[in-house]
From TrEMBL:
Annotated region described as Disordered, given as residue ranges: 113-149
Sequence intervals crossing the membrane: 21-41
Provenance organism: Asticcacaulis machinosus
Keywords: Membrane, Transmembrane, Transmembrane helix
Protein name, entry field: Protease inhibitor Inh
Length: 236
């Protein structure tokens, strides 16, 4: 009788040990699977475009004009005045120009707008001979900055910036390309707005996406297109 009980308890003990072993193996396998899945998910997120390439927050490339649906309305400016919301074709008709002649982008109110190039910023009067020099701090510091500061070759002339209602001379000796780059590299303009400069007897104008030049301070032609980030490549 005692021997049978001993054998029964021995078998029970062995079964309990086996169960514990199986449970341990199962728990270990589950943990291993969990680690593998977690690693796979983490690796997938790390290698994905969202993690590595897309910067946080909304990114806008001002240098690229937005695509406009023909039926979409936007704020329209005529001769610098807001005239209401119209389609791009209707706004162009009100301005008496082709739709391609309008600059389109987001204005100060955050709304999509269209206006003829620089219609909100007419050219300023030409500078006088006594235009002061703009120093590094932006203040006037004499009439002329002597010396040729540009070794890119080609004709040299004075380079001036128009800001705050007055002209400031940046340098007495720059090429046209270097002057345009100095004035406008990395600077973006809103539709209908413009920034002006001078190179010798020519007027420079920055409008959305390009730098223009004029010989008479009235008729402008494209000098150089801006690149990504409103960069201005050096034109020799």
């Amino acid at each position: 009788m005692g021997r049978k009980l001993a054998m029964k308890w021995g078998k029970t003990d062995i079964m309990q040990k086996q169960q514990m072993i199986y449970l341990g193996i199962g728990a270990g396998a589950a943990l291993l699977i969990g680690i593998v899945l977690a690693f796979a998910m983490s690796s997938g997120q790390k290698d994905g475009e969202r993690m590595n390439e897309a910067p946080p927050g909304l990114q806008l490339d001002i240098a690229e004009a937005p695509a406009i649906n023909a039926s979409r309305t936007l704020r329209c400016f005529v001769s610098g005045e807001y005239v209401g919301t119209f389609t791009l074709a209707e706004c162009a008709q009100k301005n008496g120009v082709a739709a391609q002649a309008l600059d389109v982008g987001v204005d100060e109110s955050g709304e999509l707008s269209a206006a003829p190039t620089a219609s909100l910023a007419p050219p300023p009067a030409e500078p006088v001979a006594s235009t002061p020099v703009e120093t590094e701090g932006g203040a006037a510091g004499g009439e002329v900055m002597p010396g040729n500061l540009d070794d890119s070759g080609g004709p040299m002339a004075a380079c001036l910036r128009y800001a705050g209602g007055e002209w400031r001379r940046l340098s007495e000796g720059l090429s046209l390309g270097t002057c345009a780059q100095l004035l406008y590299d990395g600077r973006c303009e809103r539709p209908g707005s413009a920034s002006y400069g001078r190179w010798g007897e020519q007027t420079l104008r920055l409008v959305p996406g390009r730098v223009e030049v004029s010989n008479d301070n009235k008729s402008f032609r494209t000098f150089v297109e801006q690149g990504k980030g409103c960069s201005v490549p050096l034109v020799k």
